[in-house]
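Side project, low priority. Logging it here so it doesn't get lost.
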Amino acid sequence: MIKVLIADDHGLVRAGLTELVGTFVDVEVVGAATGGEEAVTMTLEHHPDIVLMDLEMPGVDGIQATQRIREQAPKTRVVILTSFSDRDRILKALDAGAVGYLLKDAEPAELARGIAAAARGESPLDPRAAGTVIAARSEVPASQAVVSDREREVLALLSRGMANKEIARHLGISEKTVKAHLTSIFRQIKVSDRTQAALWAHAQGIASDI
């Protein structure tokens, strides 16, 4: 069962999302926060797997709350669910630690898939947001990033949403070696997390290497 916390300052939206998400298979809504501060508090109390986080909220906004959740509850994965699709907001949210970015006009089935994907360790992105992010994160050309053949294999598997343990098993190497490769990859392509690395891999065509 995937435990989900909803954070949105609009009562009707919050109630509607709580009712909708509660109908998804293998999903349980463990709480609904009215703002960013409460989202952090409820995350520490309920330990949800996923937080669906609005961006524009009074006081502590969604970006600040995402960063605090990443620091204080690293096992919880934050998926932004908002009306905004502009580049700055998307990049700030992902840099704060969000693993996904979905828009509120998404179909219910798309939201359900996004929650399930985030719970599997993947990074659900609305296609409109993905185009913006890929363009921004592909600014380091492949010619400037000296990525070895093995590192390309690791990147390709990471972009499929595989965890380190799965990558290690697939390539027949240790999990420690996978972590070492990822450290090198992040430094070479100038990113700071798995989501950004996966997006860069897609932009460079590495995601289809394996």
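Brief comment: The chain has a mean pLDDT of 87.
Revisit when time allows.
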